[in-house]
Amino acid sequence: xxxxxxxxGHPVLKQVAVDMDRNxxxxxxxxxxxxxxxxxxxxxxxxxxQVGLSIRLFIMDSxxxxxxxxxxxxxxxxxxxxKIDEAGESSAYEEGCLSIPKIYGEVERPATxxxxxxxxxxxxxxxxFSGTNAxxxxxxxxxxxxxxxxxxxxxxxKHMIRRKLEEIRKGKVGVDYKMKFVx
Length: 183
Ligand code: NI
Fold this sequence. Notes:
This protein is α+β, with helices and mostly antiparallel strands.
């Protein structure tokens, strides 16, 4: 089932999400719906707050995005992710977000991160990520901490997009996937 994606301006996107337990009702169904929602909107990642749930769950699939000559794409479910460490030289990369349609901007992030999480079977995992995988995970991880990529943009760029953000908040944006606006 395709879920509505919550748009910029909804308070759930600014909440720090909480850890989940394995008895969460129909977790497998929720994850399946999130994959369907992400793929329908042609995203590379989707976090639970973007479908209105303030829980530490996100999914990502970089297999179609990475430069296959240089990197290996991954498709993963991250539950109860917590950052252990971020390291390496920061670089800028143009990001976008399904909750903030038609706005793109360069965000600086460290090259690598190390995470601890549980997978969809609640098996504990710990791994380091770099390249495109790190970038996608850092963006999705921010969602479960209530942070949006536009908050990192330079002041000039922030000023440039201010009006567009207000229009998204009010629902005045054309998108070809289902969204939920605050209005
Ligand atoms: Ni996003």
